[in-house]
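Project standup — Tuesday

K.O.: blocked on the structure for the chain from last sprint. Re-posting the sequence here as requested.
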Amino acid sequence: MAKDLRHYLAELTRKLPSEYVRVNKEVDPRFELPAVLRKLQDEDQYPAVLFEKVKGSRFPVVSNLFASSNRLALAFGVEVENLVEGYMKLEDRLIKPVRVRSAPVQDQVLTGRKVDLTKLPIVTHCEKDAGPYITAGVGVFRDPDTGVYDVGIFRMQLKGRNKVGVLYGAYSKAARIIKKNEERNQPTEMAVYVGHHPASILSSQTKVPVTVDEFSVMGGLLSEAVETIEARTVDVVVPAHAEFVLEGKILPNVREPEGPFGEYPWYYGLERQSHVMRVSAITHREDAIYHDIFSGHPDHNMCGKIQREAVILKRVRMSVPGAKAVCLPVSGTCR
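H.V.: unblocked you, prediction finished:
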């Protein structure tokens, strides 16, 4: 059985049952769903939560997956006492992806007028957010010159049936790829997968050179080759065992207002002029589970903690070989 979101939730149920909660009462994705997570947080509880019934959508939502060191250790298959060191060994062990011809993530393929992002249970987290945001979408890009794949999590504001605003860090690999294409007045083909094994998602936060194919890094973190399949409407590949994939293009030299949004420092990121993605297809499993990151809370902070601790420890040991550990605490937003 391939390692995917379902595989992880089954492991979580078996090995860490106290850290996994199912809610069968219907919740509204606008404020109510994150309010449940916030209430648990106020009681010093940080379980992963599966919301089985979400108003306005037929799909359940899982959130708060990353808000625990125990769950991160489970995701990477290492001991929690040796989390960073164990992670570092996996990150350095590249395993090339394997291409397949059919995939669960393409059980349903919606194109043309059938594309409707409003049918997804996209969550509105904070009072002043500009709208619903996809927070756990992993963007997949390919460098137009080298063909090397990059993956990354970027906030995505729902703007309509087939349009999202996307914010990329100015110095991210994605921004570099988009800039190359914009200089040629070309769109950037992109696919965004939502819902997968946490090790797959967290590979998007690794700090590896631009020459390293990040699907190979993902394979190392999963301890198995990632099965990929060609997207239906854009020229990139996507993980075959994801829950959802949104396919589309980043429009060249187009910017629209995006934000504000409750960000990782626990403050609002202000409105800014951001890129726009036009969605050409939605593919998903028949019984897909939507993944949401609880933005501006420990779930958001912890999803980048281990990767940052690892890269700092590697760099420090170049000068101080005896360095034992690095800690980026949640109190400092893990940055």
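K.O.: great, moving the ticket to review. The chain has a mean pLDDT of 95. The longest strand covers residues 272-284.
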